[in-house]
TrEMBL record:
Heme binds at residue 439. Its cofactor is heme. The keyword Iron applies. It comes from Myotis lucifugus. One of its GO terms (biological process) is organic acid metabolic process. It is found in: Endoplasmic reticulum membrane; Microsome membrane. This is unspecific monooxygenase. GO terms for molecular function: heme binding; iron ion binding; oxidoreductase activity, acting on paired donors, with incorporation or reduction of molecular oxygen, reduced flavin or flavoprotein as one donor, and incorporation of one atom of oxygen. It holds the Pfam family p450. It is an enzyme of class 1 (oxidoreductase). GO terms for cellular component: endoplasmic reticulum membrane. Keywords: Endoplasmic reticulum, Heme, Iron, Membrane, Metal-binding, Microsome, Monooxygenase, Oxidoreductase, Signal. Its EC number is 1.14.14.1. Belongs to the cytochrome P450 family.
Length: 494
C-alpha cells in the first residue's frame, strides 16, 4: 500500500512542487525589482488589490512602498512610477529603454502586432517615423491640415446652429468633428454628419473603445487564456476591425487608380508611395494589411480622445463663466467676429492657450497613461527591471503636482500664465505623455482643440440648463479613461 503512492497523493506532491518552483522563480526574479507586496503564486497580488478600484489600491501601495514599486497582476510583474521625477527619469532620460508598449493581448489579437499603438521594436519605429513624417508633410501641403480643421470647424458650427439654442447633449456633434478630421487626413474627404458610412465608422470605433475600456480588460490582459472562454467581446472587436479594414482596402484601391506621386493628397497616398519605394525590401513593413491597421489606430487614438476633451472643455466653460468671458474678450480683440480663427492667432492669445492646457490638465484623460514596457534589462534607481516588464506611469501624480500647480484640484488657467499674463510652459504638462512613445497626434490634437473651441466661442455664448452651482464637473472614471459626466447646454448665437 505504502509502496504504490495513491494518485491523490501523487497529485498533491506534484502540485506542491509546482507551487514551490513558482515561488522560487518569482522570488529570485523579485530580488532586484523595486519593492512591493509579496505576491502569491499564479494570482500574484490580485487578492491585495481591489479590482473595482485598481487606482485606489495602487495609490495605497505607493504610500507604503514609495514612488517606484512592483505589483503582480497574476504572474507578471508591473512596475508603477509615481511623481514627476520618476516618470521623467524613465520616459525622457531613459526614453529608449522605456519606449516599449506594454502587452495588450486583446488588441494584439485584433491587430496582430501591426500598426503603431500596440506594436514594438523595428516595426513600431518605422511606422511611427513614417506617420509623424506624413503628418508633417500633410501639414505643409497645398491643402494642409490646418485648412482641413478650419473647414471642419465651420461645419461643426453650422451643425450646432441647427440646435436652435435649445438644450442639447453635445456628445454626438463633438464626436463627429474629430472623426471627420481623421477621415479628411486619411481619405482626403470629410463626410456629412448624417452619412451612413461615416456613422458606421464612428459607431464601430466607439464600440471598440468601450470594450477595450471595460475593467475586465485589465484581467484579460494578464490572463489571456480567459479570452478564449469568453469570446463575445473579442469577436465583436474583430468584426469591427474587419469592417474598417475592408473599407480602407476599398478606398486604397480607388486611391491607387488615381495616384499622382507628385501630389499626394492624404495619408493613404503617402503610404502607397512608401509601399512602392519599399517593394523590393523583403522585410518591408509597408503592406496594405499594415496600412489598414495603422489607419484604424489613428481613428482609435484620434477620435474619442479629442472629442472627450472638447466636451469637457465646454462643461468647464459653462461652470466658469468668468473664464469664458476672458476667452471671448481675447477672441474679439485678436480675431474679431468675422474671420475664421487660425493657428497663428494662438501666439497672440495666451489666455485661451492656457485655458486649453488647463482643461487637459484638469481632465487628466488617461490617468495611468497607456502601459509601457522596457525594451531591455534596465538599471533604474539601483533596481534591475528585466526586459519586457510592464511599466505604468501615473500621469495624475504629475498633472496634479501641488508644487507645480498650486491648488491642483482647482480649474484655473492661471496655472499656465506668468504674472504678466504670458503663456507659461510647464514640463509637468504630460497629458500627451512624454518621450519616445508620446502621443503621435499631439500637434493635430492641439490644433483641433484650439480651432474648434475658438470657433465655437466666436459664434456662440454657452448657456447652462441648470443653475451652474449644481453643475457637476467631476470627471468619472471609465476604465482607463476619465470622461466628463453627461450634461446639456444651449448654444446661443452671438
Ligand atoms: C486631446 C487629445 C489626445 C490626447 C489627450 C492623447 C493622449 C495620448 C496618450 C497619453 C498616448 C500614450 C502615450 C504613451 O504611450 O506614452 C497617446 C498615444 C497616441 N496618440 Fe494620442 N492623444 C490625443 C489625440 C490624438 C490624435 C488626434 C491622434 C491622431 C493622429 C493621436 C494619435 C496617437 C497615436 C498614434 C498614439 C500611439 C503612439 C505610439 O504608441 O507610438 N492622438 N495619445
Ligand atoms: C475608488 O476609491 C476612491 C477613494 O476611496 C473613491 O473616491 C472612488 O469613487 C472609488 N472608485 C470606484 C470606481 O469605486
Ligand atoms: C496616481 O497618483 C494620484 C495622486 O498622487 C493618486 O491619487 C492615484 O491614486 C495614483 N494612481 C495610481 C494608479 O497609482
Ligand atoms: C486603502 O487603504 C485604506 C486605509 O489603509 C483602506 O481602508 C482601503 O480599503 C484601501 N483601499 C484599497 C482599494 O486597497
Ligand atoms: C506587414 O504585413 C505583413 C503581412 O501582410 C507582415 O508579414 C509584416 O510583418 C507586416 N509589417 C507590419 C509593420 O505590420
Amino acid at each position: 500500500e505504502s509502496a504504490t503512492m495513491g494518485p491523490v497523493a501523487l497529485l498533491v506532491l506534484c502540485l506542491s512542487c509546482l507551487l514551490l518552483l513558482s515561488l522560487w522563480i518569482q522570488s529570485s526574479g523579485r530580488r532586484k525589482l523595486p519593492p512591493g507586496p509579496t505576491p502569491l503564486p499564479i494570482i500574484g497580488n490580485l487578492l491585495q488589490l481591489d479590482v473595482k478600484n485598481i487606482s485606489k489600491s495602487l495609490s495605497n501601495l505607493s504610500k507604503v512602498y514609495g514612488p517606484v514599486f512592483t505589483v503582480y497582476f497574476g504572474m507578471k510583474p508591473t512596475v508603477v512610477l509615481h511623481g514627476y521625477e520618476a516618470v521623467k527619469e524613465a520616459l525622457i532620460d531613459k526614453g529608449e529603454e522605456f519606449s516599449g508598449r506594454g502587452s495588450f493581448p486583446v488588441a494584439e489579437k485584433a491587430n496582430q502586432g501591426f500598426g503603431i499603438i500596440f506594436s514594438n521594436g523595428k516595426r513600431w519605429k518605422e511606422i511611427r517615423r513614417f506617420s509623424l513624417m506624413t503628418l508633417r508633410n500633410l501639414g505643409m501641403g497645398k491643402r494642409n491640415i490646418e485648412d482641413r480643421v478650419q473647414e471642419e470647424a465651420c461645419c461643426l458650427v453650422e451643425e450646432l446652429r441647427k440646435t436652435n439654442a435649445s438644450p442639447c447633449d453635445p456628445t454626438f456633434i463633438l464626436g463627429c468633428a474629430p472623426c471627420n478630421v481623421i477621415c479628411s487626413i486619411i481619405f482626403q474627404k470629410r463626410f456629412d454628419y448624417k452619412d451612413k458610412v461615416f456613422l458606421n465608422i464612428m459607431e464601430r470605433f466607439n464600440e471598440n473603445v468601450k470594450i477595450l475600456n471595460s475593467p475586465w480588460i485589465q484581467i484579460y490582459n494578464n490572463c489571456p487564456t480567459l479570452l478564449d472562454y469568453f469570446p463575445g467581446s473579442q469577436n465583436k472587436i474583430f468584426k469591427n476591425v474587419d469592417f474598417i479594414k475592408s473599407y480602407v482596402i476599398e478606398k486604397t484601391k480607388e486611391h491607387q487608380a488615381s495616384l499622382d506621386i507628385h501630389n499626394p493628397r492624404d495619408f493613404i497616398d503617402y503610404f502607397l508611395i512608401k509601399m512602392e519605394q519599399e517593394k523590393h525590401n523583403p522585410h518591408g513593413e509597408f503592406t496594405i494589411d499594415n496600412l489598414t491597421i495603422t489607419v484604424s489606430d489613428f481613428f482609435g487614438a484620434g477620435t474619442e480622445t479629442t472629442s472627450t476633451t472638447l466636451r469637457y472643455a465646454l462643461l468647464l466653460l459653462l461652470k466658469h463663466p468668468e473664464v469664458s468671458a476672458k476667452v471671448q474678450e481675447e477672441i474679439d480683440r485678436v480675431i474679431g467676429r468675422e474671420r475664421s480663427p487660425c493657428m497663428q492667432d494662438r501666439s497672440h492669445m495666451p489666455y485661451t492657450d492656457a485655458m486649453v492646457h488647463e482643461v487637459q490638465r484638469h481632465l487628466n484623460f488617461l490617468p495611468t497613461n497607456l502601459p509601457h514596457a522596457v525594451t531591455c534589462d534596465v538599471n533604474f534607481r539601483n533596481y534591475l527591471i528585466p526586459k519586457g516588464t510592464t511599466i505604468i506611469t501615473n500621469l495624475t501624480s504629475v498633472l496634479r503636482d501641488d508644487k507645480e500647480f498650486p491648488n491642483p484640484e482647482k480649474f484655473d488657467p492661471g496655472h499656465f500664465l506668468d504674472e504678466e499674463g504670458n503663456f507659461k510652459k510647464s514640463d509637468y504638462f504630460m497629458a500627451f505623455s512624454a518621450g519616445k512613445r508620446m502621443c503621435a497626434g499631439e500637434g493635430l490634437a492641439r490644433m483641433e482643440l484650439f480651432l474648434f473651441l475658438t470657433t465655437i466661442l466666436q459664434k456662440f455664448t454657452l448657456k447652462a440648463v441648470v443653475d451652474i452651482k449644481d453643475l457637476d464637473v467631476t470627471p468619472v472614471m471609465n476604465g482607463f479613461a476619465s470622461v466628463p459626466p453627461p450634461y446639456q447646454l444651449c448654444f446661443i448665437p452671438v
